[in-house]
Specification:
Number of domains: 2
Number of helices: 11
Shape: globular
CATH topology of the largest domain: DHBP synthase
Strand content: 15-25%
CATH class of the largest domain: Alpha Beta
Number of strands: 15
Helix content: 25-40%
Largest sheet: 11 strands, mixed
Bound molecules: threonylcarbamoyladenylate, magnesium ion
Radius of gyration: 20 Å
CATH architecture of the largest domain: Alpha-Beta Complex
Structural class: alpha/beta
Length: 336
């Protein structure tokens, strides 16, 4: 298949919309990561998503909308927590999970009785969704298991020849996928941390919103069973602020014949060793995270990352938990 590369002009947007309604796959930018869109109401179109990504069919998709009224067409019960989030937070890098209506088929939700809904903040994403004129299911536009794409060029690397079109928009500003907030049960719970933090949601909803990974939460989310975001080269992660340990680990890898790199908050400290910045704060780290991961794996053969949340307070903002989550998955929880 010849993939078309489309621009954000009237003609290309309306063509992208036609492709979606004709049951084709179109990748598009959002503020978090690029998505791989299909008509969420067309089971054959949605099924193509799993094939193009190589995604296990038991991992459900997020349905994207551009108008809040669409939520009532696809979700059956909207409780007070959901109403507050819909009114006061959306559009934002957040996805809410609610009981589904029957228009949303099992192929979208992997057989679950709930549906994940997201209204992106990005103007480009909403232009595309308006042109599509149907709810659009979209996972991140990467091959399953690879780091999510935050530029259209990275989408091309993974998806060229596999999908009908890519809408070439701006690089993604947030850089990590949306916060997934399950509002289909008694208590709200975060299934995947993102830029909208648990602290912010707790304050807004007047209840302590926990993360799925908290030791006492027993809920399960399909997506977290899979290995995610893995770079092609080995990676380890240090969570403390131990300069000597990092240098010793680096030097040991060099002695073993590797060409390693330190992915660190302050690369200038590591004079004479390969070192790249993790970001000036947690928001900046999120923005650059997947792009840097994809760059490092092409230049080095061992990644030694450090992410110390309490480091001078620079990494303790709202995106901190989300960045930590992606780094832990990328290294397969291989801590040093
Ligand atoms: O920022 C994002 O959310 C991006 C952009 C494109 O919007 N999309 C994205 O999709 O990250 P994906 O497919 O890579 O991740 C979807 C996550 C998975 O962890 C999946 O298990 C979870 O959402 N999910 C989807 N439907 C669910 C449901 N009904 N119940 C629980 N979790 C669900
Ligand atoms: Mg993904």
């Amino acid at each position: 298949m010849q993939t078309e590369y489309l621009q954000f002009n009237k003609r290309d947007l309306s063509h992208a919309g036609e492709l979606i309604r004709a049951g084709e796959l179109v990748a598009f930018p959002t503020e978090t990561v690029y998505g791989l869109g299909a008509n969420a109401l067309d089971e054959n179109a949605v099924a193509k998503t799993y094939a193009a990504k190589g995604r296990p069919s038991d991992n459900p998709l997020i349905v994207h909308i551009c108008d809040k009224s669409q939520i009532y067409d696809i979700a059956s019960e909207i409780n007070d927590y959901a109403k507050t989030v819909i009114e006061r937070v959306m559009p934002a890098p957040i996805t809410i999970v609610l009981p589904k209506r029957s228009v949303i088929k099992d192929v979208v939700t992997a057989g679950l009785p709930s549906v994940a809904i997201r209204m992106p903040q990005s103007a480009e994403a909403r232009q595309f969704l308006r042109a599509a004129a149907v709810p659009v299911s979209a996972p991140s536009a990467n091959i399953s298991g690879r780091p999510s794409p935050t530029t259209w060029q990275r989408v091309r690397e993974d998806m060229d020849g596999r999908i009908a079109a890519v809408l070439c928009g701006a690089p993604c500003e947030v850089g990590i996928e949306s916060t997934v907030l399950d509002l289909s049960r008694q208590e709200p719970i975060i299934l995947r941390p993102g830029a909208v933090s648990a602290e912010h949601l707790s304050q807004l909803l007047g209840v302590q919103v926990k993360l799925l990974t908290d030791p006492d939460s027993k809920v399960n989310s399909p997506g977290i069973r899979y290995k995610h975001y893995a770079p092609k080269v080995p990676m380890v992660l240090a969570l403390d602020d131990d300069f000597d340990k990092l240098c010793a680990f680096y030097d040991q890898k060099v002695a073993e014949g590797y060409n390693p790199v330190l992915w660190a908050h302050d690369p200038l400290r590591f004079v004479g060793r390969n070192a790249v910045s993790m970001g000036l704060d947690d928001g900046d780290a999120a923005t650059k995270l997947f792009e840097t991961m994809r760059m490092l794996e092409t230049k080095y053969d061992f990644i030694i990352a450090e992410f110390c949340q309490s480091k001078n307070g620079i990494y303790d903002g709202p995106a901190s938990r989300g960045v930590l989550d992606r780094l832990l998955r990328a290294c397969g929880h291989n801590l040093i």
